[in-house]
């Protein structure tokens, strides 16, 4: 596959984000990467786009690689997209994906911006990786980058397109079956999905969607209809569950949740849109999960949605769906609406179960968890179950714990406060920032060489 990397960082080759692309390229010699450093060379592209257009036209996939800058993309990349559109180049049918680094502050809006522009350009969008600045220096971050790239390659080859729910967006159900294409079958070893549905009389369309999902999904699935659940009522906010995790209601919901829902390998929520949300019964199901406090107990399980209604017209509901998955560290495999996107969602969900995929959280998850972290720390005396969970999972990542980094930053601050030292340092600062990433790339190249020799 030919990839055109559209690198939006003004730092060009010294971009931290670009190191992730280099890491992926090292591990995937079968992919051919050509890079346009549009962030650094935008002035020259403003004068002449011909070379850039040639590279873009040759590619099968455009990979937008950029740092998140103030909610969106750097202005240079913004301008390049303008120039692409003005050129009238026909990119329809090509694929696109994106990789960013940031501190996750509004990485979500930046990613949405690229997705919207991909839709304008007729590009088939395959997904995005929003990495934290330091992710590539950690083994988990490296795995996430490689998992992401494998997902992108598979989606590229199987005609998958991630739905974006723009009003005019076309359904993306028609694409080649991933398992067939790769001559693989799902691992099926006793894994199953649970469909949590709010299904009532007259909901024939939703029932049809569920039946369709069950017939096509390669794993067994069972339906739990929460319309039938004998709830004693909605959450009372009494905090009776804070210490033990046990709800004061005696309707057995907490045990039911833990034994029937949270044990599944994937959860599929099925509802029809009602009053711009999932409806009051599904909301009761959500509220009563307060017996789990702020513990991300289904962390790592993928989720998907079957939604009846016009989700394209409900941006807030989409944000809720995305935010919930991200806070819970659940891979959002897809949302099928009114029988569109069903095939794509099914394939992604099965693949996510097989590979146990988790990708980095975005602003929605990172920001949400920081708020929870601070809250639980303060309320630890009362919210004992949460506190123990946060301690056990290393979730108290308070900045003051990073003493070595704080000291290092003090030393750097002292040096650059001195104009003479600063002048002497020149470009050394950017190079210094890049050192941990260069180390990762060198180690990876060495390991790959060694594996080839053996
Ligand atoms: C002008 C500017 C704006 C930025 N805005 C954001 C932001 O909105 N959200 C965020 O999480 N990080 C933000 N950052 C941090 C960068 O996204 C982050 O440092 C990134 O890893 C740099 O990548 P690069 O080396 O590839 O340019 C900003 C940095 C700069 C210089």
Give the SSE layout.
Elements: E1 2-7, H1 16-27, E2 32-36, H2 38-47, H3 50-58, E3 61-67, H4 75-87, E4 95-102, H5 107-120, E5 124-132, H6 139-157, H7 178-181, E6 193-197, H8 204-216, E7 221-225, H9 253-261, E8 266-272, H10 280-287, E9 303-308, H11 315-327, E10 332-337, H12 342-355, H13 363-378, H14 384-392, H15 403-416, H16 419-425, H17 428-453
Parallel strand pairs: 1-2, 1-3, 3-4, 4-5, 6-7, 6-8, 8-9, 9-10
Helix pairs in contact: 1-6, 1-17, 2-4, 11-13
Largest sheet: 5 strands, parallel
Would you list the SSEs in sequence order as H and E?
A: EHEHHEHEHEHHEHEHEHEHEHHHHHH
Mean pLDDT: 90
Q: What gross morphology would you assign?
A: globular
- CA gyration radius, whole angstroms: 24 Å
Bound molecules: flavin mononucleotide
The domain count comes to 3
Overall number of strands:
10
Describe, in plain words, how this protein is organized in 3D.
There is one protein chain. The protein has 454 residues and is of the alpha/beta class. It has three domains: 2-157, Flavodoxin domain (Rossmann fold); 178-359, Flavodoxin domain (Rossmann fold), CATH 3.40.50.360; 399-453, no CATH class. The chain has 17 helices and ten strands. The chain has helices at 16-27, 38-47, 50-58, 75-87, 107-120, 139-157, 178-181, 204-216, 253-261, 280-287, 315-327, 342-355, 363-378, 384-392, 403-416, 419-425, 428-453, and strands spanning 2-7, 32-36, 61-67, 95-102, 124-132, 193-197, 221-225, 266-272, 303-308, 332-337. It has a five-stranded parallel β-sheet, with helices on both faces. A five-stranded parallel β-sheet has the order 7-6-8-9-10, with helices on both faces. β3 (61-67), α4 and β4 (95-102) form a beta-alpha-beta unit. The protein is globular and about 70 Å long. The structure holds flavin mononucleotide. Flavin mononucleotide binds at residues 9, 11, 15-17, 67-71, 101-106, 133.
